[in-house]
Amino acid sequence: MGAPRREQPMNADEEALVRALQPAMRELMRRWDADLVTDQSLSITEYSVLMFLSEAPSRRLGMSELARQCHQSVSAVSRTVGRLERDDLVRREQCSTDARSAEAVLTDAGLRRLKKAWPVHLRSMRRSFLDHLGEVDLPTLTAALRRMADGGDHPPAG
């Protein structure tokens, strides 16, 4: 009986994948941000806040939930919301169910801004990421990435 799988050395394909992952992720985020900033004067972080708010019921989310969805700290998202507030794209309101909490609310101007930026982001995602996937099994890749993003240490059974 050999060593548990997690202690076995990586094969060449696994090693290559692991070594390619981090620089690829950095480059994707850099490109997506650069394309949005260059064309729309909007960072990828700001775009993400607008996107998640647009998908939320009544276009509003508590700051903690918004931070969770953006994979950012509450303070980082709060700074982003502050920048978006200055342009009247988002406003903060006191939470109706908890007076100690604030919610970010997407304004009509914010929704228009998101719709204007969306084609730029879509082209950027296709050019820098999706067009490179070829025959990759997208549902399987998506499920694996979601497990990783959720902090799951366990691969699927079977």
Describe this protein's structure.
The protein is mostly helical and 158 residues long. 60% of the residues lie in helices and 8% in strands. It has 6 helices and 3 strands. The protein has helices at residues 12-40, 44-55, 63-70, 74-86, 108-128, 138-149; strands at residues 60-62, 90-94, 102-106. The chain has a 3-stranded antiparallel sheet with strand order 1-3-2. A hairpin with a 7-residue loop joins strand 2 (90-94) and strand 3. Helix 1 (12-40) packs across helix 5 (108-128), helix 2 packs across helix 5 and helix 3 crosses helix 4 (74-86). The radius of gyration is 19 Å and the shape is globular.
Defining traits:
single chain; 158 residues; mainly alpha; 3-stranded antiparallel sheet
Helical content (DSSP H or I, runs of 4+):
55-70%
**How would you describe the shape?**
globular
Distance between the termini: 20 Å
Main β-sheet: number of strands, strand sense, barrel status? 3 strands, antiparallel
With strands numbered from the N-terminus, the spatial order across the biggest sheet is 1-3-2
Question: Order of SSEs, N→C?
Answer: HHEHHEEHH
Radius of gyration over C-alpha positions, nearest whole angstrom: 19 Å
- Per DSSP, what share of the residues sits in E-state strands of 2 or more residues? 5-15%
- Low-pLDDT windows of residues: none
Average pLDDT figure: 91
What's the total count of β strands? 3
Number of helices: 6
Return the structural class. mainly alpha
